[in-house]
Write a structure and sequence with these properties.
By secondary structure, the protein is an alpha/beta fold. It has 2 domains: 155 residues, Rossmann fold (3-Layer(aba) Sandwich), CATH 3.40.50; 73 residues, no CATH class. It contains 11 helices and 7 strands. Helix 7 packs parallel to helix 8 and helix 8 packs across helix 10.
Length: 246
């Protein structure tokens, strides 16, 4: 089946980003958006029922809202529709999909990029990573989907949900934690920044506003607490380095 329509459920920063990407890279496909804060105009914004009637339906809500939204969307889908999940964590949503979406075509992904990283590299998807953690697509449909995503320049990475969350805790969550700490401490760019400090501030600025995501990843990724424990231990060791030979 060649998709003729894409439905985006959720209109936060990432939902708006997905809408812009769909219109840019698939201009021939109709895009419908459902947002709780927007009245349906049947031109851009649609009811949940009409949005879920699309060939491809992307749930782009916060992690904590995913289960409730999934339960509302599943009864509205056609058996031929492909449900796309884009949460920053994978163990929880994959478990829910396997429990609740039996018989439904779905693909569980995590785009390892957002509006900030997309803009930082000149508005290009080239080389940006998309993790695929689970799917129920027939082989031919999955092959067509991944081939198309690759033509956009995306680098596809396949791994289990558990592998993803373990790595994410050591990368994205760690970046968020350090960025939140640096931002809250009041550190800013100066006229004499080193290159390395510039890279640090790039990271800080890319995630410091994502407080809700930061909290949700900590709550729903089982490996984040271990990362904080390792950081606390390392901080003590680092302070001990400064205290040597005094």
């Amino acid at each position: 089946m060649t998709p003729r329509s894409i439905g985006i459920i959720g209109y936060g920063d990432f939902g708006r980003f997905l809408e812009a990407l769909a219109k840019r890279y698939a201009p021939e496909i109709v895009v419908r958006v459902f947002s709780r804060s927007k009245e349906p105009d049947n031109e851009r914004f649609f009811s949940l029922e009409d949005t879920a009637a699309c060939d491809i339906v992307i749930i782009a809500v916060s992690i904590r809202a995913f289960e409730e939204t999934l339960k509302k969307v599943l009864p509205l889908l056609s058996p031929e529709s492909i449900l796309v999940e884009v949460n920053t964590v994978k163990v929880m949503p994959v478990r829910l999909l396997r429990e609740l979406a039996k018989g439904q075509r779905y693909i569980a992904t995590h785009p390892m990029f957002g509006p900030y990283s997309f803009e930082k590299q000149g508005g290009s998807l080239e080389g940006l990573r998309l993790v695929i953690a689970d799917h129920t697509l027939p082989d031919e449909a999955f092959s067509k989907a991944t081939d198309w995503l690759s033509t956009l320049g995306l680098s596809l990475v396949t791994m289990t949900a558990d592998e993803h969350d373990r790595m994410l805790a050591e990368t994205l969550f760690l970046t968020h934690y350090i960025a939140q700490s640096v931002s809250r401490a009041g550190f800013v760019r100066t006229d004499i920044d080193t290159l390395s400090f510039g890279y640090l501030m790039d990271a800080v600025e890319s995630v410091k506003e994502d407080t809700e995501l930061f909290r949700d990843v900590y709550e729903f990724n089982p490996y984040c607490k271990e990362i904080l424990s390792r950081l606390k231990e390392a901080e003590g060791e680092t302070l001990a380095v400064l205290a040597r030979d005094r």
